[in-house]
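Pilot study result, target chain (525 residues):
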Amino acid sequence: MARLAFILLCHKDPEAIVEQAQRLTAAGDFMAIHFDARADPRDFRRIREALAENPNVAFARKRVKCGWGEWSLVAATLEAVRAAVAAFPEATHFYMLSGDCMPVKSADYAHAFLDAHDRDYIESFDFFASDWIKTGLRDERLIYRHVFNERRNKALFYAALDVQKRLGLERAIPADLQVMIGSQWWCLRRGTIEAILDFIARRPDVVRFFRTTWIPDETFFQTLVRHLIPETEIESRTLTFLMFSDYGMPVVFHDDHYDLLLSQDALFARKISPEAAGLTRRLGALYASGGREVVVSDEGRRLYAFLTQRGRIGRRVAPRFWETEGMLGHGRELLIVVCKKWHVARRLIARIEAATDIPCIDYLFNERSCPLPDLGGIETTLEKRHRHRRALLRMLFEYHEVDRMAICLDPADFDLLEDLRGDAARTRVLEVACRFSDDDLVGHARRIGLAGPRTRPETLARLLPTIRNEIALEHERIRDTGAAQHVQLREGDPPEAAAARLAEFLGLGPDEALEIATTENLFAD
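Predicted structure:
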């Protein structure tokens, strides 16, 4: 059976460290602790005294003064790893943790998972070919030597870098290594750890190289594992669930995140808020619970992005300066069908196109697969369509050789709708308000990635009211603008009332409008 040796790097909060160690070792696992040499020595004494009688806890023989981005973090990790290898011969896996991590599965589940999958879990992407690094230094991390800490000595850090660049002091990467990069939160098998320790004992040149790279905890283990272990035995992901905000800051979890964390495809999560006492208590009890049955839906990142976006609906997107001359044109009329149920809008515009001479294009700003003619490349991606929206529509008017055209928009595209309403061309909006059953909302959640086939009913039950309110809010925003030429068609309207609204929107006679209004199964799912 798998038994874990946790590698814990920490520097504060001795009470929480003791609790974490007692909690994780109570299930039969082990822990090797490295406590930062910069931290208060009294805190370290309290930790050692509190855990002195626990045979499943070991301490790094040498304590290192750690600094973010420095080799010292790797050195501290290696000290804790060596202590764990020596003290716990029964350990089968070594799992990198921080003091902010908590389990999101039981110990039995974790052991069974690792028994069933004989592989190493570590993010390892090609340093030069991947886009793992989003901002800041890239190649400079490796090809120049870094002896100052960017956070503590910013001026010296960048001065040293600038001197090396001006003097052309680039250095070579060890020829036999393909440098990889990834998260520092890994879980490695004992054989892999022993192979790494043996390799660095034989290859001091590799250690010297990484000692003066920048942020080596994101490259050192990631590179050596790929160098030493067959690719088929590596899964390039972390078993620790973590998220980052749009500003690159770690998302902090609180008491109300318990159910979300349990459903993630991970064994641990970080960062848990120090104030989340309820969450810490429940997750601690979970690890000792013995349960193995877990439904993993893994929608955490999508839910976070969705809820974050809801807080930004007040943003206004002004017309882009390069489009000021790109108006659709006086004398043209753009008919916009706004509908959340895309299949309903498609049925409606198909009937409109069949009964009139108006070209109708469905969700061209929402679906890449929307059929469009060759317009010189502007139509090839959704990003291009949004960026050059007026130019795209103007070219479609010209392609069809018409002055009236209909398109479909999702109600969520409020900024796009407002932008088009501000054009010199005439715009008319038909808002199609559909009824939504719970099954409709579940289907919508799955289409947009908020839920999956394994999402639990309890999670859906909590999610559906939010989605229902979000859809209602989207329609309210459109109506609240009070814009002229806005017509609303409601599911359940009598045919005569629906025909009157369609006649107003399309400029048709009553008989033609009634024929469209009575489209068979228009609102059917």
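One observation from the pilot: The first helix runs from residue 14 to 25. A full batch analysis is planned for the follow-on phase.
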